[in-house]
Amino acid sequence: MSITVKDVEHVANLARLELSEAEKDRLAGQLSTILEYADKLNELDTNGIEPTSHVLPIYNVMREDEVRPSLSAEKALLNAPEEEDGHFRVPAVME
User: Which GO biological-process labels does this protein carry (predicted)?
Assistant: First the structure.
């Protein structure tokens, strides 16, 4: 599979990127090379190989959940740009 300059322009538009013509040509070539390399994986015989998400076994390493001293609400609010009724006041994100 090869990537065309038109494909690069489409992705750049979605990402709101402005690319020069030289950059578009260079990226089309580089992305095509990457996809050609990844396509080589299709040549491998994977019959009988178990799917894995990691090559090495992964264990959940977590510390014990224990109560420890932390900042009081008053001290935490000392750094707040705005505070209201003992809480951080932040700009609304939804109308």
Answer: glutaminyl-tRNAGln biosynthesis via transamidation; regulation of translational fidelity; translation
Question: 0.85 exceeded by the pTM?
Answer: no
3-state secondary structure (DSSP) of residue 21: helix
Question: What are the sequence ranges of the domains in the chain?
Answer: 5-43
Helix, strand, coil shares, percent, the chain, to 5: 40, 5, 55
For residue 84, give the H/E element and its range. strand 83-84
CATH class assigned to 5-43: mainly alpha
CB neighbours (10 Å) of residue 11? 14
One-letter amino acid of 65 = D
Contact 86, 77 (CB under 8 A): yes
49 confidence band (pLDDT: 50, 70, 90): confident
DSSP reduced 3-state for 14:
helix
